């Protein structure tokens, strides 16, 4: 089953300040993750500062594919996640270095021999993950939660993975906000070799 393409509308300003549509159509950046066939990143937009620059600048999705948001910025993307397969679960950990390298953050992978899922990872950000279509299971170091359309996860820099046990693709919308760990959490992560 194929999920429909994303339609993006980008607005801007004319020289006289009047609002106009700058772009309306398909996303210019849609990329399948080679090491995880069927996983597709649909890059919507990103901002590179706080407060976010409100300008007529170039499309920020056309640069290199990056997992985390820019420093003091945000990133918005849809991700299509295929069902987990027995082959992926058996060989997934070996592929993660290549997968996270393709999405610009090799250090994000935290997978170890005892990890509950081969896609375990962590970023120093607050991520809003919204299930749009299908089902997903949020996997943490301790515990799991089944998510359905309309479920929203507020992921606060925790070690996690997205497991698709439904047998069909799932589409999630992610909005990532750059963050900094609270000093007590940073110290705990460093003490346990998890930072």
UniProtKB/TrEMBL annotation:
- UniProt xrefs under SUPFAM superfamilies: RmlC-like cupins (SSF51182)
Pfam families assigned to the protein according to its UniProt record, in alphabetical order: Cupin_2
Tell me where in this chain the Cupin type-2 domain is found: 115-175
Q: Which Gene3D superfamilies match?
A: 2.20.70.150, Jelly Rolls
Q: Which residues form a coiled coil?
A: none
Which superkingdom? Bacteria
This chain's protein is named: Cupin domain-containing protein
């Amino acid at each position: 089953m194929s999920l429909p393409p994303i339609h993006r509308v980008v607005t801007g300003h004319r020289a006289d300040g009047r609002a106009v549509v700058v772009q309306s159509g398909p996303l210019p950046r849609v990329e399948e993750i080679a090491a995880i066939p069927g996983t597709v990143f649909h890059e919507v937009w990103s901002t590179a500062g706080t407060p976010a620059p409100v300008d007529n600048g170039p499309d920020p999705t056309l640069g290199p594919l990056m997992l985390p948001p820019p420093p003091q910025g945000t990133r918005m993307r849809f991700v299509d996640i295929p069902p987990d397969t027995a082959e992926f679960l058996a060989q997934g950990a070996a592929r993660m270095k290549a997968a996270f390298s393709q999405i610009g953050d090799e250090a994000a992978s935290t997978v170890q021999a005892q990890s509950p899922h081969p896609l375990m990872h962590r970023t120093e950000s607050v991520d809003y993950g919204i299930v749009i279509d299908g089902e997903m299971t949020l996997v943490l170091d301790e515990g799991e939660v089944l998510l359905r359309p309309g479920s929203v996860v507020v992921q606060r820099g925790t070690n996690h993975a997205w497991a698709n046990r439904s047998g069909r693709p799932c589409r999630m919308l992610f909005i990532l906000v750059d963050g900094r760990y609270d000093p007590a959490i940073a110290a705990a992560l460093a003490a346990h070799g998890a930072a």
